[in-house]
């Protein structure tokens, strides 16, 4: 016995004998964290036929709809998780410990559904769901089992047809055998074990005698379910009326012939079968011939010779069920399918049992399939015609009235007779009764005084009369009905139109208020000039006093502002819905506040210039468009649902947010070493692209990295970026001192190499889970100590190889620092080795790196 998930735990587990059952073993967990995961058992010296089971903790935010889901290849399936806790975080779904899907926190439904269309073998595996900040041990687990053949087939090439597995059994896609649910046995799972019993031979018995609160797992492709008679996630709820079997997935169809037992199904006196459709037949053979010969000789011993000849006739049994051959508005034509059959034939009599879906009464049609291979099943719902003798043959169809039809058909049959053992041809005759459509609660009665005469082989004269009182239902009743119907329809249409008008006016009012709230006051002289999709901003070079930048434009009316998601001293970021190229999408709208300085506006326009020139890259927040309104610039960029990387890292500090959970799961963060290294690699990849385009970022820090869909890190905030190999800043302003290289602090010189220094500080932020660089030191102390080879200390949870990479970024000589391409190669190698380079396990005397928000604001 062992554990397959999570992979951080050992595979094999110590086991001991379980004397409560035959040939059983058990595991005893020592700590609470050992309970969670996917466990398996298998025979010794065998790696096949493993049986899996699953355990989850009470802290799980979701519950799976079922522990396992079995489907055949090509089918559609929904992986469902039920929400059991409310949390203000995004929900994430993993497959085999790899991220595949997320749902924003404000859009999480009560039932989280991950649909898969046309299941393939590669879709099989373990699916887990949790909150994005939750530890792995708080995940809900379900396993998708995919049969490699289409439904009803098995074999290496799926060339064989599966047997009909009863009582919820599943056909094995390799052997063709039926894997029976707990509580059933037999080649096709037709035998019921009974209450509290299970096992291949029904010899095992649950300790409580009922199998309540027990999850029983079989080998694939069956998976896990409750014992027969129980349902629910904890298998503690009894089956409701009319349901039975493992997980209460089967429906009793006993009709009036028996009662439904939640452990056994239909229990019928003198009958058997899933629907009580078969009578108990004596097991004596139909014919028996016995010959006995006896010879006796006396000598020193006595010998007895006995020969027995036994001949049995086995009743025939068709191999295929009846098939639907045709249908009409009031009938079904069923093919009996008497051949091929097993046993001694031929089949001389067949009984077909049928019922309407919304009724519980079963009806039968019985006859000889030799004469009538096609039977017509009917469902009459009117009283039969009185005072008329007729014989109903199986192939004749009864027509029944429907309340919406004006013409109602009443069938009549003549008596048939047999002459010299040959069936005569009998024709059914139909009478047409004209009814008047009205709002009466019941149909008009059948015609009366029906008489027939002059009957020949090809014709007959039939007369009848209508019941008195029907004549009063004339056209006036129809007119009244149509008047009422039209009046009601017009009333509904009027209410609907009024509702739509009120709703539209309300939306327009809200939008107008939002626009007014986010509009700027018209300034006397805008710093930046706009004209039809181009931006004219003062050049920083004296040779060209003005340069024009083209940008993708957005219409002001195509921007629907929503909530403010970020705010600084001089700018705002607003979530909005925009319309671009005819498509609606989420966006982040950046704008400057009215009291921002000219330099702030110039830097903001410079960010638009940089984004236009950079183009598209997966690790850069890309430009969606820009809009000029009343002399102000509104910048639309990609919306990152998970916010900035700094806040994302600090939210993962589970020891500060939930100490009890952190101690119980021995973890300091909800993020793994692989996820943290992925963030670092994403930023390095984006910065390498900037370096190739000869752009300098100048403000690279975790606060300026956004976490997008699928947790991809994207570089943002290009307000200080410059499209030059070397940039010398000649003015003093707000500076990110703690992230700046020595040459930038000393000489105000910025290059790609100074961005590499900032990247080293960013890597330190990632490893320290959002710590403040040089926490406890002032900017003046940094100016003094950095030239003296003082550097950030190594985080306690950091591997030497990662800290060495940071040190390379902080080399005093800029040309000795690695390029972003070299940094990316090193990080990719670490990711491939799958070694724990950042230890997030909670060890003794663990402490997080300090956070000093005031120091960050000061630079």
From TrEMBL:
Residues 559-831 form the Protein kinase domain. It catalyses: L-tyrosyl-[protein] + ATP = O-phospho-L-tyrosyl-[protein] + ADP + H(+). One of its GO terms (biological process) is cell surface receptor protein tyrosine kinase signaling pathway. It is a single-pass type I membrane protein. Keywords: ATP-binding, Cell membrane, Disulfide bond, EGF-like domain, Glycoprotein, Immunoglobulin domain, Kinase, Membrane, Nucleotide-binding, Phosphoprotein, Receptor, Repeat, Signal, Transferase, Transmembrane, Transmembrane helix, Tyrosine-protein kinase. Residues 154-190 form the EGF-like domain. Interacts with svep1. This is receptor protein-tyrosine kinase. It comes from Salmo trutta. The lineage of its organism: Eukaryota, Metazoa, Chordata, Craniata, Vertebrata.
